[in-house]
Fold this protein.
Amino acid sequence: MISTAADVSMRLDKLLTTLALGSRSHVRGLVKTGRIGVNGQPVRTADYRVDQGDIIALDGAVLDARTVRHVMLNKPRGVLTAARDAKQPTVLDLLPPVYASCGCMPVGRLDKDTEGLLLLTTDGTLAHMLLSPKRHVWKCYQAEVEGALQAKDIAAFERGIALSDFTALPARLEILETDLQKSTAKVWVQEGKFHQVRRMFAALGHPVTGLKRLSIGPLPLDASLAPGEYRDLTADEIQSLLEAVSGE
């Protein structure tokens, strides 16, 4: 179980604003009227310093005061991997406002028509390491493609596929089902460049008709999450990702 206590040291009004309880003036009003408690005692000073591990409550109800967040989202099709967009829904729209307020951002991108596992985190260093090809963190996808995949396609993925602007690193392809019209396969890549998996298949004459990310490193998509649903990562899952990027 992940603690809901504060995990940073900062002014009380700043923390409450970060937790998306309202504007700075609104949360100062909450404090002034005695509605905010710290460790069971009312605090009426907005610049009161909240320390790591302090328990924060509003009207007696304990708040989830974490500002460090790691989230697993089952991204549905038709949603942009972006923080905000004026015209189309984004993955941050699927989460409560506190995640955006804390600075939780997607780790890499899944294009609009790709579904499956998307991580969001407030830890920019972890995000960078998960995305770096030098860390050898494999991402697994399941792809539906046109035409019959063959052994020569497996070999092409293993060699690395030359695209117009770069050559993809060697990848792994496992054919699950195939016939003359369509095929289903799993593919593992170490990179995550724009439309990379789709472009790799297209370069071999197999346009992708469906794509879903199944895992990132040691972390699989939680099968209990329906498209659009999310949950916080467990402490063990966070540790497994840290070990994956450290090479341990």
